[in-house]
Amino acid sequence: MDIRWVLRTIKAVAVLSFLVSALTGCDGNAPEPTANSKESNQNGSGMQSGQTGPYPINTKDSFSYWGTMSTTTASFYTNQGDSEYGKEVEKRTGVKVKWMTPQGSNINEAFNLMIASGSLPDAIEYNWASVYPGGPEKALQDGVIMPLNDLIDKYAPNLKKALSADPSLDKMVKTDSGKYYAFPMIRPESSLVYKGPMIRKDWLDELGLDVPSTIDEWYTVLKAFKDKKGAQASLTLIKNSKGPDLDSFVFGAYKVGDNFYVDDNNKVQYGPMMSGFKEGLKTLSKWYSEGLLDRDFSINDVKALDNKMLNGKSGATHYLLTTGIARYLDIMKEKNPYFDLVGAPYPTLSRGEKPFIGQTDFTYLPNYAAAISTRAKNPELIVKWLDYFYSPEGIMLNNYGVENVTYKLQNGIVLYTDLVDNNSDKLARGQVLSKFTKVNGPTILDDKYAPPPAYKQQEDAYHAWSNTDAQKHRLPPFITPTVEEGKELAKVITALESLRTEMMVKMIMGAESTDDVDKYTKKMKEIGVDQVLDIYQKALARYYRR
């Protein structure tokens, strides 16, 4: 593997990881783009973008655009249009856009209320694959958004060229009926793994212990952290919208996912109904009962996690590469120069096994897909505007900001200016870049020019977390149910997720015995899990046939 690929991999991660997002697509754990080798194409996915086209556009028309901001950007602005990025986009494209930025923490609710009101903006950037009841096919049938095939063909040469160059990506971003429904966020392969188990290496060294790779080794390490380092809770976790943020950490050792997943026979399974899930619960329950797992594992937010990891209350967690490892190393550089944090592999039962599953994403991330509503008066203009972000110039703006303001190019590598890395306000790189860039949205995440990571620990963690079979076992988030299937899913999924979270928390905390799993399995069947499995299986088969 080209070391330049690895070194660049992790910095573009920094661009996206500022966000401890308000979206569950990130659940406080935003995807963190990485960077690829010099030999990669402009978009880092083996695709060559087309030319920028006639920008700025000569028009007096405008349109409204509904979409979220990263929490870092939101700390400076209440509206994306007020940001340096928004101003630069208007100058370069020649189009006046009315940015509509939803406020508050419950963005799903804001989205649903907007759809229900019938008062729609011209373009809407959100997760149409999972948030809209029935998915994108239903949104098209309902007349909420319009199919984009003809519009992309005529007015989006940059996106069209990217999709034509990568058939697997092209398959991801359309419905089973072959309709393009949104402008996608496209990521290079090197950006797909950005989260995993991490552990205090300085504590391990002091205790003469290796980085754990099996469940038994994890128990030994966590016990030593409690008994010999005085950790209040050796392992701490953060809560996301679906309960403890694990990405099948622990459960994968028992050959199951902690939610819906695909087994070795391409059959969709539901982890909580599998025998391996019960074994994972037993392990976590044992750690909890012995004080090794944080008693607040089901309610911790980012602030609580930071407090425990930075103040010696915990020595391990499951968290982000840049927002976790790099940020923690930055913070502790002066406070405790001996502080060291490294990534650990997803645990297995036997040393040398390849982990069954872990965190990974796909080239297409549906969370930030921009669709055009049927209320739009000038969809051609919106398509031309969106296509700018797939041009070489638009890609550089979205990823790195403005040349000679936030960065300079030297020997094919981005060097950030003093405004970014040595500013008088003492803002971190990610904070400054959040004013000038927008990597969460319809664009291509770049890994061609990214500078190397700040810490070797990032590179090592990326390797440790990437060495799994997760790509084989993750259920793709962009499979699309039929309209009728979508209606059935809408009736079941929320209740099923609530029951799953209740089961996990109660059994890990010992409020209920893991022997009661069968009772929950019966409830899951009553709710309709078998119908969900059947729907997902059919949707997966249709996806393979696209």
UniProtKB/TrEMBL annotation:
Keywords: Cell membrane, Lipoprotein, Membrane, Palmitate, Signal
Signal peptide: 1-22
InterPro entries: Bact_solute-bd_prot1 (IPR050490), SBP (IPR006059)
Presence of the UniProt keyword Cell membrane in the record: yes
Region (Disordered): 29-56
Polar residues composition-biased segments: 34-52
Domain of life: Bacteria
UniProt name for this protein: Extracellular solute-binding protein
